[in-house]
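[stage:ingest] chain + small molecule (adenosine-5'-diphosphate)
[stage:ingest] validated
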Amino acid sequence: MGIAVIPKGGHVLDKFESPASELPAVEFVDVSKSFGALRVIDNLSLRIRRSERVSLIGPSGSGKTTILRLLMTLEKPSEGTIKVFGGALSAGGRGLRESEVAPLRAKIGMVFQQFNLFPHMTALANVMEAPVQVLRMPKPDAKALAESLLERVGLKEKGASYPSELSGGQQQRVAIARALAMKPQIMLFDEITSALDPEVIGEVLDVVHSLAHETKMAMLVVTHEMGFARDIADRVIFMEKGRIVEEGNPAKLFASPDNIRTKAFLNAVK
Ligand code: ADP
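[stage:predict] done
[stage:export] tokens:
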């Protein structure tokens, strides 16, 4: 039997069990994902700490988006287990109870390349929708929350506008506010600037930078913008063919990568 440790005011822990505050926000344990014969994620193990910001870079088709989709439970692993704050979110080969998975999934927010706003709803209504429908938040509270989030992304004056009346950069900022409305502890960003005109990319990246500085959310960022990948992250992961080739401190990895394949990739995207 392990030695019991009693944390301040907490429950008794076995010495082999981490206290909840030390559990990683995200953990992939030997995860593989295949589509037919194609192995897209190949025995991947990965941990993301609470409040850690991780950029995921690599050639097209290396499995970056699949990692985010696995975390959103839009895909299921073929093998291995994905944990969120220590709880099993998804596992290859065995079914998990929806009642256990749903609260974990609710801790994760995602912003997509295509903003996916509801076109028939105003910016304000887009941000209010999930808190009202999913969290059953009273409408006046959801409205106050949505207004404060639109202000936070610099769109205080645009609540009454429909997506078609907004620029791509503004729509993407509404999409960020919409994800934040569910108060996620983990945010996933999937190529959020790829569909944008160059002149509005900066305003979207500025919003993500301010979130990184002002919140404690864990962030997993997939991007082709190498400057952004470097500046936003505590750690950069370079992937190829569903595997981690190299990872480390952003300044170091971008300035002098150890792996020849990382070097080749960075030279090619310069
Ligand atoms: P990345 O984000 O690094 O560009 P993806 O994760 O989008 O890579 O895709 C990895 C590979 O998996 C690609 O070869 C892609 O074509 C394939 N893939 C992704 N989703 C599916 C799917 N639903 N069915 C079949 N193949 C898929």
